[in-house]
């Protein structure tokens, strides 16, 4: 299965009642969480960012123009909050929804696929924590480049989204079915495809309304793709098909 087929199968899986019931929950909870934090701490955040803006290179341009300084601070807060809300929704899907989604896809598309249980709940939690930590560090390091690099500013978040998507969902998609050896083999042979899939799915973050639904869709796409790659790997090892 190439990633185009995985996108198609994920779209079809999305209309099952179980998946429809999950669609709005991750992003809804994330927006409530960060919206509540923003309402509570907005004054502190605005004050801190206003001070940073005044002492930055942009300070002379906004000094004395109250509405411009206020708009810049609001823009900066939203620039930080929107990615955080999206990433939080992805993490919720990875930790809480993926086991249900993997079972759903496996029962309907891969009923004969043997379960080797190479992953664990602890491994999933650690993978999610590590992925989020690395993503946030890279996000903070590259944030100034987003503001200063013009059109290239779109490239940095897209690359970060590709990393986060594949790092978060590859483990959970394979944890129940793949052995540790199979997981390593799949990362070696399909790592580039996983990054490409993560990058394509990362584009959904920029589509209004669809970005509210995309975390569940992303999880389904990685599940379809990873389980199909695992099934193909086992068939090749058994000599049933010729490796590509």
Structure, explained:
- The chain has 244 residues and is mainly α.
- It has one domain (3-237).
- 80% of the residues lie in helices and 0% in strands.
- Helix 1 crosses helix 9, helix 3 (25-55) packs antiparallel against helix 5 (66-109) and helix 5 (66-109) packs antiparallel against helix 6.
- The termini are close together.
- The model is unreliable at 64-69 (pLDDT under 50).
Poorly predicted regions: 64-69
Class by alpha and beta content: mainly alpha
Estimate percent helicity.
Answer: over 70%
- Based on CA atoms alone, the radius of gyration comes out at 20 Å
User: Main β-sheet: number of strands, strand sense, barrel status?
Assistant: none
Mean pLDDT over all positions = 83
Report the β-strand fraction as a percent range: under 5%
Number of domains: 1
Approximate shape: elongated
Our count of helices gives 9
Q: Write the H/E string, N to C.
A: HHHHHHHHH
Count the beta strands.
0
Query: Could you tell me how far the N terminus lies from the C terminus, measured between alpha carbons in angstroms?
Result: 12 Å
List the helices and strands and how they pair.
Blueprint: H1 3-13, H2 17-22, H3 25-55, H4 59-62, H5 66-109, H6 121-148, H7 155-174, H8 180-202, H9 210-237
Helix pairs in contact: 1-9, 3-5, 5-6, 5-7, 5-9, 6-7, 7-8, 7-9, 8-9
């Amino acid at each position: 299965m190439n990633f185009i087929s995985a996108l198609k199968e994920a779209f079809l899986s999305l209309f099952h009642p179980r998946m429809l019931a999950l669609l709005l929950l991750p992003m809804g909870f994330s927006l409530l969480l960060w919206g509540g934090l923003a309402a509570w701490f907005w004054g502190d955040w605005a004050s801190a960012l206003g001070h940073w803006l005044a002492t930055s290179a942009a300070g002379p341009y906004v000094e004395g123009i109250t509405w411009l300084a206020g708009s810049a601070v609001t823009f900066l807060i939203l620039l930080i909050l929107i990615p955080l809300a999206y990433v939080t929704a992805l993490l919720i899907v990875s930790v809480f929804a993926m086991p249900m989604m993997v079972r759903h896809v496996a029962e309907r598309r891969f009923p004969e696929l043997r379960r080797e249980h190479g992953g664990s709940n602890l491994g999933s939690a650690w993978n999610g924590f590590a992925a989020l930590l690395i993503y946030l560090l890279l996000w903070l390091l590259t944030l100034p480049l987003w503001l200063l690099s013009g059109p290239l500013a779109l490239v940095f978040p897209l690359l970060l989204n590709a990393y986060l998507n594949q790092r978060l969902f590859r483990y959970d998609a394979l944890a129940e079915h793949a052995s540790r050896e199979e997981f390593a083999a799949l990362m070696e042979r399909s790592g580039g495809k996983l990054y490409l899939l993560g990058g394509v799915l990362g584009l959904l973050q920029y589509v209004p309304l669809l970005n509210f639904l995309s975390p569940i869709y992303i999880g389904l796409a990685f599940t379809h793709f990873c389980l199909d790659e695992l099934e193909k790997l086992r068939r090749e090892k058994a000599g049933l098909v010729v490796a590509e």
